[in-house]
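Example 431.
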Amino acid sequence: MIIQKTTGLKGTITVPGDKSISHRAVMFGSISDGITEVTNFLQGADCLATIDCFQKMGIEITNTKERILIHGKGLQGLQKPASALDTGNSGTTTRLLSGILAGQSFESSLSGDDSLNSRPMGRVITPLSLMGADITSVRENGCAPLLIRPSKLHGIHYRSKVASAQVKSSILLAGLYADGITKVTEPVLSRNHTELMLKGFGAKVTSVLETDGISATASIAPFPKLEGQKIIVPGDISSAAYFIAAGLLVPNSEILIQNVGINATRAGIIKVCQDMGGDITFLNKKTAGGEPTVDLLVRTSPLHGTIIEGNIIPTLIDEIPMIAVLAAFAEGTTIIKDAAELKVKETDRIETVAVNLKAMGADITPTEDGMIIEGTGTLHGAKIQSFLDHRIAMAFSIAGLAAERETEILESQCVDVSYPTFYKTLNQLQK
Ligand code: S3P
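Predicted structure in complex with shikimate-3-phosphate:
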């Protein structure tokens, strides 16, 4: 994809449905009784991989552009798949599904693409094994392919070292099949879509902040009666992030992004942009299924550096590539720390952000748990390697809109993972 420097992005857009919520709707609908109807489902490769996995386990799922219909068969209704389940590029599919599969009476295996099969799965293998699961890394390297054999699960109280919604959700889903209560304490509350949505399906889930006001414990009771739901998926704030940044960076812009999910466990990007001087207005606040949405009005703004650390990190972890680009165009220093989780995303995003920002002339120093960026106000176009990471491709496409000369994004089709219509929406704003 070739991106030219531009001015005056104007218009009203919507972004596709939230990726995390779309995955969960298919998973929870499949193990509930009756029909689950999902509207504004994200038709990205990751979520389509989740649909495919459940279809391979005998769940009838119809997918028209307007809605997804899932004919759930209840907690015990999944069937042994004929072959390994292919989770593609999707960490959420792999880790959450591991929790569900640990509780089944059949053997199964999970495998994905090269990126997925090199990401750490020990973080779910360890707690699921403590629950009694028989789950192994086939190559004994702590990564997928994973082999999961039937076994009896029991509830545990797991204290996770990482604030990871994928880990928390995997354990809670296994907890549906355990004898006794399952609890997960995490150092900082991570995205809570599982807790909110599973409650809607009828599970007995609780979530409390600990007395320190930072760490949080979620708990779940086994074998609830789950019933099909109507789920309206809010627009994905992680996808909106690219157009928030475009609106702030590109001169003379004004973009209205409608129906964006702003769950507090996800909305750190907005606070950071406002802290950097970004002009963002909330309009039309609504709530559905416990998930709040707003329309975001974004206008071009002079930005300055900031410090991003501590508890806010889990609420914006996927947006850090985009924030790093904003920081490079801002005045002054931006420090990002406590974000070592970046190293185990679709790529090592400390490295892939640094390589590409340097190629565009930015002053960036990668660190063990983040990066330091000296804003220079301008960048120049470059050949950008996406490394097949959707968020790298999109963040640097936005950088290209504000950089001098021309930017080329290599293997830009990887945006299909979470945002197949990304370049179409970008074009729409340039007309
Ligand atoms: C996700 C959780 C986050 C996030 C990922 C989606 C989820 O990962 O980065 O894109 O849907 O639960 P971690 O749980 O590994 O932090």
